[in-house]
Amino acid sequence: MSKNTLDQICDHKQIQGGFMLASLPETDLLSEEPDADGIDLWADNFSWDSIPGSYGCYAFYDPKVNETVYIGSACAVSHDVAQRGLRMRLRFYRGRGTRNKPTSTIQKVRNEYAKRKLLLRCWISENIGDCRKYEHDAIEKHKPLLNWIGTRSVTYEEHKDRKRKRSQQYRDRMAGTQYNPNKKKRCPHCKKTKKCSEYAKNRFKKLGVKSHCKQCEREKYAQQKGRSL
Ligand SMILES: [Zn+2]
User: Fold this and answer.
1) Cα–Cα distance between 134 and 148 in angstroms, integer?
2) Which domains does the chain have, with CATH numbers?
């Protein structure tokens, strides 16, 4: 959260006469001893016994360079140990998953696994709240390649790329919309070619003006209001 946002919230709290909850101490999941480690989720000899039947956090990492690629949490609650928390979540990763879109995180993790064999480690947490807190702090701190803080399905780099492309497209579009009062433009309603100064301005349109001339617009509004000119 940026400092400005935080300040705004604090101001808001003061106005309301309330008090902000005390902030909890920061945690660092990756420096904690995992409850299971070095698991190859897609190996032929993989066994579900290697995954704890509990909720907790998990991380996919590249063992060669010790880079954490994705951090997640699994909080599903079930009486069936085989369908609980980490086991249930990791089932989705292991399944063939034809339902997964190529942009889904699960598919991205699989693609990354195909490139460089990722391994998995898991941490069991005492309760679901802790689980979320550890996950959140770890993502904020380590910013793993495939994580996007929040619920976005794109990584931070992809998001940046898209933003850059979009603003370039916008600039390209705007370059062709410079308003010039002497430029000629044909009105599709009255079929006359008139100067741009005869059109109402609209900076989002081509040439910076509306498509119909002022004359036609006036007539249109007059008609709508049931008045004659
Ligand atoms: Zn016209």
Assistant:
1) 16
2) 24-158 (3.40.1440.10), 172-228 (no CATH)
> Is the pTM value of this prediction over 0.85?
no
Distances (CA, A) of 7 to 3, 21, 123, 149, 198: 6, 14, 34, 21, 49
Low-confidence winner among 8-17, 113-122, 176-185 (lowest mean pLDDT): 8-17
For residue 172, the CA-to-ligand 1 centroid distance in Å is: 28
Residue whose structure tokens are 């940046």: 160
What would the pLDDT profile of 87-111 be if each residue is shown by its tens digit?
A: 989 988 987 665 667 777 888 899 9
The whole-angstrom separation of Cα 204 and Cα 173 is 8
CA of 217 to the centre of ligand 1 (A): 7
Closest CA to 204 of 185, 180, 176: 176
